[in-house]
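hi support,

uploading two proteins for the ticket. first:
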Amino acid sequence: MGSYVKLAKRAVETDMPVMVKKYAHQHNHVNAAYEYVLCVGDRVFIPCARERALHGVGGDLFILKTHVGYVYMRANGGLDAGFGPKSEKCCVLGPGLSFPFFMFPYTAFFTLYKGVEIGEGVVYWQPPKEALNKVKELVWEPSISRYGADEGIPELREALIQKLQKENKLVKSSVMVTAGANQAFVNLVLALCDTGDSVVMFAPYYFNAYMSFQMTGVTNILVGPGNPETLHPDADWLEKILSEAKPVPKVVTVVNPGNPSGTYIPDPLLKRISNLCREAGSWLIVDNTYEYFMYDGRKHSCIEGDHVVNIFSFSKAYGMMGWRVGYIAYPSGVEGFQNQLLKIQDNIPICASILSQHLALYSLEMGPEWVTEQVKDLVKNRDIILEALSPLGEGAVKGGEGAIYLWAKLPEQYVEDDKVVDWLATTHKVIVIPGSACGCPGHLRISFGGLTENDCRDAAEKLRRGLEDLLSNGIVQ
């Protein structure tokens, strides 16, 4: 009939971070998560805080008594939810609700707890106030509500070309504006890869990139190792794969600085990877989303070539996560590349939001100094979280060189990291990402970008207590 399971226990099957993230965004409760979901067969029903009847269902009625009330289930998969102890009021979920990450607004008869979120890759700041004020003046402009050029509004593209030349030293690149860096990556996979092609990633990898390959039919995903000490991609392994694999992998991709690793690929290593790709005839996609997030005196740099495509984003640097603006810097000299990208762009978003593109333009006018001023405050957050991870022992934590992530190794007996994530969330009210989502079971990804310093200290205290409890007593429900 149905059973309660902890949310994170279905992390491998349904991607727990996505479920928590989508709920938080939809209801504007970034620090809220549900301890329990109801599973009916293969379906997962996630509660929300509003009461709303969707539609009725027929079939035999079964009653499941719980410690918080009654749940009414029908034989055909429908669900009636009681509003509290012995309530006769109910609403109904129909039988067609089969996707585990959709948020269905019905009653909150499940256990609800407040937890702090240090898993999701976000920053705590808003876009520049000056840019937001300018955008407000554009809302009633008719052009804002119409389609724009597929590749982006001309004034933003021109500003981005100047930025690429000045800041990134990319002088032979053209620009396409996309609805965020994730959409940019999907565009590139569709443009460069055919079903059945092989591609290369390095563990720990960015899970959205992995899923982008999967959903576009690229199933031969070769996952290379990272250096155990630095987490840098293993170029020797790559050289062997590119020389021996048949057919040659179509794409090699890296994130620099890394998500989820938080490490920065040094220039000599990135150049070697690029040279190996060029010699083998493979494309290299470099995700530079965190280009401004560099610490301890490190400087970010890009690489250019007729086989190299760079991805950038406004989401983290300018606090524009919900505005969805990213861009592709692709080689101008490759014949036909632009046309292929335009075909894909016109069939997915047509164009990125016109209003969002104007906000991106106005934010860009603030200069990189505005971003670095925000980023410098994250050093305190990083150090606070590093201290909270100290119970794991010396050498257990990597990253923190760039981006907004730390990568922590759990004790050997906790290779099933989803159980640890579940336990930390339910027992200690702190939410992190399991390393198994990134191809490395037995690890945690922790983000230090989404909270102000005071909130970060609160999260760190919960995390520290949780890890100390884990090492002393194990997982005790």
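and the second one:
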Amino acid sequence: HLALDRPPQFSGIDAAGHKGRLVIAPSPDHVERAFNPSKYGAFSPEPVMEITLPSLVDPSLAPSSACVLSAVVQYAPYVLKEGWTAGKPQFLKAVMGQLETYAPGIGATVRHAELLTPADIEARYRMPGGHWHHGELQADQMLMSRPVSGWSSYDTPLEGLFLAGAGSHPGGGISGAPGLNAARRIIAMRA
């Protein structure tokens, strides 16, 4: 998360585009190169990011003319080889370098930065592994196996307990789809 003294200007994006979701993933090859270091306990020097500027949509989130930037930086390993205490400043530097490539001058506008590692996210939000989708989005945890095999229909072995969050099919984000699907399941079961 970044507190900026003014909204950034991402190259090639008009004002309306800054109010949506911005993704830094220039090519499939780039995504693969960004993922590879995580397999070895390292982070990418050019990370893939999903960025929002929520204060452009809701001005109450930042002082007048200032801006809040929130980024989900993909493929950060849960366990960093040199440890997150030592690695956090270097990771923030990599994130800022990547942002600077696409929003020149952004570094000079930063008033405060908060970097949450996967372990920070796990501790603060009770998300195992720091996964913002409440679990890995990988082949063995998708479709009929999300969140786990046998629980993909939103109901659980506990009567009246339904799963409707990011850990349910089709996963996290802001789609509302898991909640809608769970509601449909409840209605179907009661019909």
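thanks. also noticed: The chain has a mean pLDDT of 90.
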